[in-house]
Structures are given as C-alpha cells and as structure tokens.
Amino acid sequence: MKKVAFYTLGCKLNFSETSTLARLFEQRGYQRVEFTDTPDIFVINTCSVTENADKKCKKVVKEAKKVSPDSYVTIVGCYAQLKPKEISEITGVDAVLGAAEKFRLLDLLDGFEKKSEAVIHHSPISAATDYYCSFSQNDRTRTFLKVQDGCNYSCTFCTIPLARGDSRSDSIENIVRTARQIAQTDVKEVVLTGVNIGDFGLQNGIRTERFLDLIKALDEVDGIERFRISSIEPNLLTDEVIEFVAVSKKFVPHFHIPLQSGNNKILRLMRRRYKRELYAERVAKIKSLMPDCCIGVDVIIGFPGETEEDFLETYQFLNDLDISYLHVFTYSERPNTHAITLPGVVSMADRNKRSQMLHILSEKKRRYFYEQQLGKVSTVLFEDDAEDGQIHGFTENYVRVTAKFDPVLVNELKPLRLTSINEKGTVEVKEVEQEVLVHS
Ligand code: SF4
Question: What sections of 321-431 are H helices per DSSP?
C-alpha cells in the first residue's frame, strides 16, 4: 500500500479541498500518513495569497525530499494555477496540476511513476468550471464545508479569480446531504467556506439558488450543533441574512466582513462594491438585532494611493465602529493585478507603521468586546489542543476561552460563565451548575 502525505498552505478552502483529495486517495487504497512518516507521495496544496508563496512552496518541497528522498512530489492549488512553469522547475517537483485538473490527479499521474522531467497538467483558468464538493475532516471539533468556489468580482489587488475561476456553487440539496453525512461523525460545528459565499447560487453562470435559502435549509439539519459563516462581503450580507441569523437555531452570532479600507477613494481604487457608509450600516443592523454578535473585519493597509490622511480616516472609522477584532493585511504587489499599475506606492516603512497601529487597535477592540461578555453565560466548544495543562475553546460569539485541561471537555459544548480576562488575553470561565449549587 503506497503512503501519501498532504501539506496545505493558505485558507480554509484549501484545507477543505486537501481533505477531499485525501479521501480520493483513501478510496483508491492509498494510506494517508503524516508528513514525517516517509510517504511515497506528497501532495502540496499551495496558496497565491500567502506572502512569499514561491519560497514557502520550495521550502516544503525541500523538507519533503529530506523525509523521503525518492518520493513523488505533486503541487496543486492557487499558486500552481498561476505559476506552473516556475513550480515545475523547483528541484524535487514531479508534477504540477492546475485548478481544473487537481481533483483528477489520481487519473492524470499514471500511478505516480517518475518521469525524466516534471509533468504539468494545466489549462487556462476559464476551464475551471466544475464544482467539487469538499469538507475538512482532520479536526473532530470543527469542519470547514465548501459551499462555493471562484469569484466574479474584480478587486484590483486580488489574484483569486485568476487562480480559482468564475463563481460557482454546490446545490442546496447536495450541501444538505453532505452536512447530514458530517453529522454522522462527531463534529459539532460546521464553518461554511467559499471564495465569495454571499454570491452563492450560481451554477454554470446562472443564478439558481440563494445564500439565504442555503442557511435556512442547513438550520434544519439534525446532529450539527453550530454553523458559522466564515466571511461574507458587506454588499451581499443582506438584511434578510442578518435577520435570519438573529433568530436561527444553529447559526452563531459571528460575522467576518471584509472592509479593506475605511476610505471611499481607496475603496473605489480597489473596485470594491460598496462605500464605507454601507459597511457602517451593516454593522449597526447586526448590533441592533444581536448586541453580543462578534464582528471581525479584514483591512488592507498601504494600498497604492493611500495617503496618511486616507489611512487616518480608515483608522478613525474602525475606531468608531462597534466591531470585535481586525485581520490586518499589508498590501503587497502581485503580478497580473491592476493595483500594481496604480500610482502612489506607499513606502514599506509607512506600511509597517500603519499595520502596527491597526494591530494595536485590534487588540483594544478585542479586549473591549471580551469585557462586554464577562459575567454572561455562553456555550463553549472545547477543542483538542491541550497545552500546559490548559484547554481552549470558543463561545458561539467567538470569545476564546481557557480552562483547566479535562479530557472529558474535548469536543464538548458546555455552558459556562465568563469570569475574567487572563494575562494571555483569553477568557477564564467557571461552572454554571456549581454556582447554582453554591447559591441555593
Ligand atoms: S471579492 Fe474581491 S477580494 Fe474577494 S475573492 Fe473576489 S476579487 Fe478577490
């Protein structure tokens, strides 16, 4: 039995797709092993958004060859779609597969027989029109379920449409069937992922279903305790979606909404499809219905043309918004994007300074949000990550909680009272039952 190991760079979508690839191998009789367990085959799923994607890819290939010098190394993923030739020239690489080919790798790679040169199976991105249902299965606490792929937007900094193709989705019927299958395992929480999941519902270029109907259907799936929406564009986060989450049985009060800039001039240059006023209105709508809802925000700093004043406007906008944390990205030039042609390049020193300021703001926001939750009872889902005698978990509204390790807690949902914030910035808890006993 040949042994195969996987390595994933990048986002939740890549993780869900790696799991699906692993299942395809297992169905054909391969044994899935750890990276260091002398595999015969490595599959490295790459990302184009990751800083230094090329260096990271090279490093993983080098490590793979150290572990198993005679192994067959296959590269798939976004970076493989964008730079197949460069990747095929990395020492140790045996095969590179593009976006339209990656799920056919078992048929395309001829029993993983090495050839004198690396083989490339790659088509233009317009050929990536098929949809492959994917979900991750490594972590028994949480599963990432892909519901949508690709993107029809044209944000000027983004290479994802070039690497993943046009927007396309699974059907609600198929997703519900997959969710029921996941419910048979011990998974408690499903995170819906995609490139642009608010755009859910396009099949072969025709809009056939709606995101709102998807979440309504999933809310009825027995056996899964929680659903989380990973990230959704503000212009697609409709009142109906917010109102449904507010009354839903299983969708948790947590949204991650990319903002990218709090300055309308920069949003226009980025070709985002909203102005900052719409973003503020979405946040206000959420908070009016779910005051304890956690709201995460993606921001890019240092985009071409972003002056000090523009940045300060973004800073002030975020400071005034009732949000819970930021994911800060430093703009970096990507080949084949429109942004790279724009004037007003921001110096690295300014990019670093702005990034630091927003990281500090993010910590301030997170702490404030956590402080608002102290004294309340929340249901915590504990993970399988014991460290220094402690275990971690998340509440429905994404407060990170720490407790003394107890194997019984792993993968359990437990209502607990949030008591204080410790020096590591996570929240300490206490038993609710004990408290009741003490008071009665
Ligand atoms: S919405 Fe914009 S940033 Fe997001 S994947 Fe599409 S093009 Fe990229």
Answer: 348-373
Give the angle subtended at the CA of 76 by the CAs of 303 and 114, to the nearest 5°. Answer: 145
pTM reported for the whole predicted model? 0.91
Please classify residue 154 by burial: count the beta carbons closer than 10 Å to its beta carbon, then call 0-12 exposed, 13-18 middle and 19+ buried. Answer: exposed
Distance 242 CA to ligand 1 centre (A): 21
Compute the distance from residue 159 Cα to the ligand 1 centre, in Å. 8
Does residue 9 contact residue 46 with C-beta atoms inside 8 Å?
A: yes
Cα–Cα distance list, 342 to 304, 333, 354 (Å): 6, 10, 20
Q: Which of 146, 151, 147 is nearest to 163 (CA)?
A: 151
Q: What is the mean pLDDT of the chain?
A: 93
How remote is the CA of residue 152 from the centroid of ligand 1, in Å? 8
Delineate the domains of the chain, giving CATH numbers in brackets. Answer: 3-127 (3.40.50.2300), 142-364 (3.80.30.20), 377-439 (2.40.50)
Q: Helix (H, G, I), strand (E, B), or coil: what is residue 58?
A: helix
Q: Where does ligand 1 bind, in terms of residues with CB under 6 Å?
A: 151, 153, 155, 158, 160-161, 195-196, 233
User: Are the beta carbons of 61 and 93 closer than 8 angstroms?
Assistant: yes
Give the burial class of 337: count Cβ atoms within 10 A of its Cβ; 0-12 exposed, 13-18 middle, 19 or more buried. Answer: middle
Helix H or strand E encompassing 430: strand 427-431
Q: Rounded to whole angstroms, how far apart are CA atoms 99 and 47?
A: 12
* Atom 8 of ligand 1, nearest CA residue: 158
Q: For 154-163, what is the mean pLDDT? A: 92
Q: What is the pLDDT of residues 330-383, one digit of tens each?
A: 999 988 899 999 999 999 999 999 999 999 999 999 999 999 999 999 999 999
Which residue type is seen at 370? Y
